[in-house]
């Protein structure tokens, strides 16, 4: 049999399917027309009668629906679904008693039919039969509970099979079972957990993260989901997201040892030492026997000490104590790592021989320990052991302790260089180190076709005068110490790269020196004269013109062992009663200057219009106008050495240091006019050192 629909000959089955398609698209009128044409051709078609009755009820034409359903029921009196639909259509017309009779007919044949029970419960409630309604509701609840228990049992058994398949490596079959469960219960937490773990096994970390986030949206206190999600983010190197997951969980659910430990792990991986130190300290107090927490807290404390240059006696001793505690019960691998950290802090405290002994112990146990070898570069520098220093310093690149370049571009080496190369020089560490490294730019400029230098944007005006053939890429300092925003078009022009700090090693390997130029400051004549006039105007006309700086720009630096306290700065000033002193201390220091004046009776001159923090060209021009600069080992020290003005520097050395005699710092002190006075780090009274440096200055400049 066929039906003519839209001038196309279709079978009844094809016409039925076409009508269903229109219905699914929301085209109900078109669907109804086709169904009615089919019914006209086949008036006893049960599926069509049932579908049209549904359409009638959707249109609230319950009488028409009843007519069609009665006809259908007469054709199939044992079809309980038709009887139920008829009862619903009659109920909608308010004929509750008739509807109840049809419902009872269904329940007489299928006593646990949930739809019929639900309908009878509603009808008896409408008819005021509260007892019967409550009985039906109780039976409904029991049926639902039984079905739920059955489903839970089946799901648990299926998940157990999936677990077995996973252990056997049959991941695809396991996934099929889990997906089947979720098709029945899309928010089943056990199934989503199992699927997440399966995805993690398959290294499908993005998909795993999606499922774990679903779990946390269902239950924010799901500790396993939070723990696994944080670990997945760690796999994706999305450490800040991993920290946030743990942080949110603790905020919502309260303290939880495992989640908080994972949070601490994320802090370490993300190098968030401040947050890690704060969190680790609290966890260590709550869980003093947890070796992992003690170890992670120690890492944060050590790196916070190193990265913030928090070299105070108290902070360093506290770090040593922390390392000692972490070493108790630590694995051999951790012991070696912690011992290398202890060696470094021991060096900061001045005991170079003990530090060398620790390093020797670690190196004996782990001869391939590159991290330990890298740390030793500070000792090699102190000993002027250049043959060991430069190779050890280079290890910092591959260990991510120094700047690196992640592309396939080769590293520049003087021994392999050609005149056709275009090289990019990358900055690293602090601006003071940058300034020191740029003594060496001529070495590479003379050997290649083109040089790009990425540097602190504040240095560009100064460097442009010193090295006019170089193209500069100004950068802003970022908390991400190795994150450099180099334009793609620049990178595409370059054939090789080198960190600025590696140029010294190239020069030493070829010439046995540490710099290409002892001084590189170049000043426009008008600028030079402008600042010379300002310096001279403030000069008393008698003694030396002395620039002073006593600490770094960090607010926490006032108690750093490398720096002088204010009363010690005042003592230095008293050694030169006829001199004029000019402030070179960048950052907020007005209170310190007032205290210096109070203690010494001398007002330190602040030159109007001089931006010590950001204008390096003008600051260097001022330094060039002075007789000497007396400073801590900071950017002021490095900038002074770029000029021809003698620089007298003081800083912590080791317990072996003789503070009365200057030492070399990367080469001939007389050629560079850089005189570095090192003192024992734990030296309490620094007045003798100050007096010795003052006497050396008088000998060098006043006789």
Automatic annotation (TrEMBL):
Matches recorded under InterPro entries: TPR-like_helical_dom_sf, TPR_rpt
Gene3D superfamilies (UniProt xref): Tetratricopeptide repeat domain
What is this protein's record name?
Answer: Tetratricopeptide repeat protein
The scientific name of the source species is Photobacterium sanguinicancri
């Amino acid at each position: 049999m066929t039906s003519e629909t839209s001038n196309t000959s279709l079978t009844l089955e094809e016409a039925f399917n076409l009508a269903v398609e229109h219905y699914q698209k929301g085209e109900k009128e078109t669907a109804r027309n086709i169904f009615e044409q089919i019914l006209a051709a086949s008036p006893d078609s049960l599926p069509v009668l049932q579908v049209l009755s549904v359409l009638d009820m959707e249109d609230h034409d319950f009488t028409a629906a009843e007519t069609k359903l009665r006809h259908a029921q007469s054709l199939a009196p044992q079809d309980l679904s038709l009887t139920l639909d008829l009862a619903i259509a009659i109920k909608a017309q308010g004929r509750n008693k008739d509807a109840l009779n049809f419902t009872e007919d269904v329940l007489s044949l299928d006593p646990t039919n949930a739809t019929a029970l639900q309908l009878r419960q509603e009808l008896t409630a409408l008819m005021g039969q509260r007892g019967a309604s409550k009985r039906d509701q109780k039976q409904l609840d029991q049926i639902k509970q039984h079905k739920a228990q059955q489903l839970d049992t089946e799901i648990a058994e299926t998940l157990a099979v999936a677990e077995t398949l996973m252990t056997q490596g049959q991941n695809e079959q396991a996934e099929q079972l889990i997906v089947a469960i979720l098709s029945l219960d899309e928010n089943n937490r056990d199934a989503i957990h199992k699927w997440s773990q399966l995805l993690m096994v398959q290294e499908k970390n993005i998909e795993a993260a999606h499922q774990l986030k679903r779990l946390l949206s269902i239950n924010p206190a799901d500790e396993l989901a939070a723990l696994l999600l944080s670990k997945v983010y760690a796999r994706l190197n999305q450490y800040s997201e991993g920290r946030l997951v743990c942080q949110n969980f603790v905020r919502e659910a309260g303290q939880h040892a495992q989640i908080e430990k994972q949070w601490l792990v994320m802090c370490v991986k993300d190098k968030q030492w401040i947050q890690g130190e704060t969190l680790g300290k609290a966890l260590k107090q709550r869980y003093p026997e947890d070796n992992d927490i003690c170890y992670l807290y120690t890492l944060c404390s050590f790196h916070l000490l190193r990265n913030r240059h928090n070299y105070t006696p108290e902070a360093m001793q506290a770090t040593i104590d922390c390392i000692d505690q972490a070493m108790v019960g630590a694995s051999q691998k951790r012991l070696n790592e912690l011992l290398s950290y202890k060696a470094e802090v021991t060096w900061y405290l001045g005991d170079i021989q003990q530090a060398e002994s620790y390093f020797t112990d670690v190196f004996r146990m782990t001869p391939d320990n590159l991290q330990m070898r890298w740390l030793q570069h500070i000792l090699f520098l102190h000993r002027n052991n250049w043959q060991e220093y430069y190779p050890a310093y280079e290890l910092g690149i591959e260990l991510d302790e120094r700047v690196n370049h992640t592309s396939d571009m080769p590293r520049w080496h003087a021994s392999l260089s050609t005149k056709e190369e275009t090289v990019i020089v990358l900055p690293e560490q602090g601006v003071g180190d940058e300034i020191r490294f740029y003594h060496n730019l001529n070495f590479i400029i003379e050997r290649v076709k083109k040089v790009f230098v990425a540097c602190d944007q504040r240095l560009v005006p100064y460097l442009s005068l010193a090295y006019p053939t170089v193209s500069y890429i100004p950068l802003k300092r970022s908390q991400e110490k190795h994150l450099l925003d180099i334009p793609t078009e620049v990178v595409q022009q370059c054939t090789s790269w080198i960190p600025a700090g590696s140029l010294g090693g190239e020069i030493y390997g070829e010439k046995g020196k540490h710099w290409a130029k002892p001084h590189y400051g170049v000043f426009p004549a008008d600028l030079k004269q402008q600042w010379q006039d300002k310096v001279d105007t403030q000069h008393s006309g008698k003694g030396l013109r002395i620039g002073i700086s006593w600490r770094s720009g960090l607010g926490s630096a006032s108690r750093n062992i490398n720096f002088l306290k204010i009363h010690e700065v005042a003592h230095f000033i008293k050694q030169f009663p006829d001199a004029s002193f000019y402030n070179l201390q960048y950052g907020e220091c007005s209170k310190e200057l007032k205290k210096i004046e109070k203690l010494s009776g001398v007002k330190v001159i602040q030159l109007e219009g001089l931006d010590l923090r950001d204008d390096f060209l003008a600051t260097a021009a001022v330094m060039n106008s002075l007789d000497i600069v007396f400073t801590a080992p900071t950017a002021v020290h490095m900038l002074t050495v770029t000029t021809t003005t003698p620089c007298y520097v003081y800083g912590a050395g080791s317990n072996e240091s003789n503070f009365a005699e200057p030492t070399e710092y990367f080469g001939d002190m007389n050629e560079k006019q850089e005189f570095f006075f090192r003192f024992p780090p734990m030296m309490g009274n620094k007045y003798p050192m100050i007096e010795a440096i003052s006497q050396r200055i008088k000998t060098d400049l006043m006789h």
